[in-house]
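Q: For a teaching session next week I want to show students how multiple molecules come together into a single three-dimensional assembly. I've collected the sequence lines for a complex. Could you give me the predicted structure tokens for the whole thing so I can convert them for display?
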Amino acid sequence: MAQAQWEAVIGLEVHCQLMTQTKIFSGAATAYGAEPNTQADAVTLGLPGVLPVLNQQAVKMAVKFGIAVDAKIAERCVFARKHYFYPDLPKGYQISQYELPIVEHGHLDIEVEGPKPYTKRIGITRAHLEEDAGKSLHEAYPGMTGIDLNRAGTPLIEIVSEPDIRSAAEAVAYLKKMHAIVVSLGVCDGNMQEGSFRCDANVSVRRGPDAPFGTRTETKNINSFRYVQQAIDFEIARQIEVLEAGGTIYQETRLFNPDTGETRAMRLKENANDYRYFPDPDLLPVIVTAEDIAAIKADMPELPSVKKARFESQYGLSAYDANLLTGETALALYFEEVVKASGAEAKLCANWVTGSLLAALNKSGKGIQETPINAAQLAGLVARIADKTISSNTAKDVFEAMANGEGSADEIIKAKGLVQITDEGAIVKAIEEIMAKNPGQLAEYRSGKDKLFGFFVGQAMKATGGKANPDALNRLLKEKLAG
Amino acid sequence: MSLHQLSLTAMAAGLAAKQFSSRELTQHYLARIAQFDDQLNSFVSVTPEIALMQADAADARLAAGGVGLLTGIPIAQKDIFCTTGVRTACGSKMLDKFVAPYDATIVRKLHSDSGMVMLGKVNMDEFAMGSSNETSFYGPVKNPWDLSCVPGGSSGGSVACVAAGLAPVATATDTGGSIRQPAAFTNLTGIKPTYGRVSRYGMIAFASSLDQAGVVARSTEDAALILQAMSGFDALDSTSIERPVDDLVTGLGQSIKGLKIGLPKEYFADGMAPGVRTCVEAAIAQLKVLGAVVSEISLPNAPLSVPTYYVVAPAEASSNLARMDGVRFGHRSQEARNLEELYKKSRGEGFGAEVQRRIMIGTYVLSHGYYDAYYLQAQKVRNLIYQDFKRAYETVDVILAPTTTGTAFKFGDNSDDPVAMYLNDIYTIAANLAGIPAMSLPCGFSEGLPVGFQLMGNYFDEARLLNVAHQYQQATDFHTQSPKEFV
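A: Of course. Below is the structure for the complete assembly, covering every listed component.
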């Protein structure tokens, strides 16, 4: 009997640094990249006698996040101390939340791309507030370890998903959606290279959807979407290989190596610390009232999911285009500016933004913030297509020229003499000349060789320098060729 | 009358009337410290330069006029409060070389705001863990009433220096009785206010939910003056309470006729030494004479205070002391060859035996599988103790009890038996668990050694507590007695 197919079970923990000006429990700055330890005040250093004071901005941001994922915001949540010794953890404990987190029971609807795109709801178990640790610098000092506590005390929310994810593609779709949400809410800068948004992946495999969960491994601190894809794919394949060879999967922490695309064991979870959590006696429970939540809600920007629905109804876009355009706040904004400034049909604008523009950005590895063609420029181009000054084909050349910095659409069209020929007399004249020059082809066409229509279109376009209005050309050519 | 025999009010009057300067007053105390402290070991750091600089600044302000009552009056700081530029060792080898870059809030309030003069930092049990001052890395403090006896702890240095007249007043802290027990052993008045009344910022934490700063003094009036200056909301301490501070000083002097005093029967059962019982009963009789109405009450869960405390306090201590890891400050072992050894050896060498014992107890009760049985259970009992007091204050104004079971004991008497030592706190711990204000004040002598009794008040009822104590002291003279060798 054939065995059931392997199924992966994945749960993600996302660490998301909050964009507060100061640390979660002190007034020290949180800016990235400062000289080591210049942002470590007495509280950050954990000096004897200091006490934490909660940054209310961090609470507000966590509540915003909770609202955005339809979660329950705890009326009363509690900070707890999580103990372990490590040089970059100044107090010997991390202030986190354990039994009573601020956010629980949310969810995220994701769109998974691929040959058969589908949507899926992923449960969010909880999200809690905590402080980040510092950094140990092993490379800079041979035989020693440097400690930089600038990052220590930076506020984080740790977002824990349900084990609802079944593939690396779903994991990436979930993370991208999550990333879009926290960035659009203004709670996280989303910079993955700097570690502002990073992920731990819990992966196990089982024989089919009805089998019990297998033993899971946790791959830590993955900081790009591509690495997440690689790490999960590697881990699924590795576990299946081990199990099929009759081996055992150990519950362990693993590290992803971006150079090899592989994960390797870091430490066995069984031997890990007993964290000895207990409520932090230095901090009072945090109370969030219904009024607080209402006030925060009123102050929130439009969420990607709401924006997506609006793009579909207001602009008549497909679900796919709406999803693509609302995946990033800046892209959505760009699109709406193009629509407004061009006065053209939204669908046409969407085609140019999701088509040529995104392709160009992808090709050069740039984000929408670094686009070589701004929204006003693209609107100028789309407007000329809409008023039939140029054809879509010609527009592609103008787009290229704009990307090369040759000026606005109008300037390029004028400089290159690209204005579309809509004068039907001129087109008819060109057609008649071509018919006269190619009597053989004309006879064949008239005897039923329809395919030659393309030949005549090409000749006519050539004769008009590609500027003939395609609709008019087609119509007139058909009339004339028919005789 | 010598300068060191003056009350704070008399001292302030003398300074205001230019009978003596703050510099003269400060020099007087510095001379007494130099003369007597070899016998007592109460100071771990004497800071004459800072003291004289602060005294001169105070004199300048006194000359200009319009200053607060405490300007120019010297004080000793328990070595648990961080002081910029002056070592804060907390009685431990671990912090022997630790100099804080900041001032504790109460240090700022007393010196920068109130203009007091810091004579130095005084000795204490290591990280405030002890009832005899024998656990200090800097050696035990002696009791000025009998040098072969302990001064009590953990605020042993605070009480010894004030009882011997080496400082007019001293700050202290109380986690399970560390103000009240030593005050009782040295014939002083000591008050631990309501939890949250005085900022804990800059006070090195022992057990965060129990620690509270206060004062030891030679009279209730002196204690009230200092407590007034220390109290108040502090944005740097999230457990500090945003509530105006009552006037603790001008409220003194009201009649206590009709005051309802409760005597918890659990505190008057067996266990009290006869000499202590006699003095405490005399104090009750005296308060009746002053018009108080005394009745027996019950705090049924009070006998569970000691075991509850010895779960909660070590649990918090094990966590609070985790930062002493030899990485950023404090003792670092020179023997360590790797990270694990750095932790183990630095902590093994830096912490004394009692501190290590409590870290181990605390680590144990917070461990996976034991947390529910110990820590969580202790928190539930703690809540019951809190409920007991809440209920009691529905019928009485003030609760009266002994402070200690006996008088000051000899060095070494309890130091081999931790449990016997822990039982020293049997009458004082409940107030910390409940967070209520409590004080100890002198009520006589037994075989030449001082006896104190305890008054416990309702939340934020420091003013009433101090008034009762003051009325009692107006009618008695026990608190005016000083140890003869140090006159």
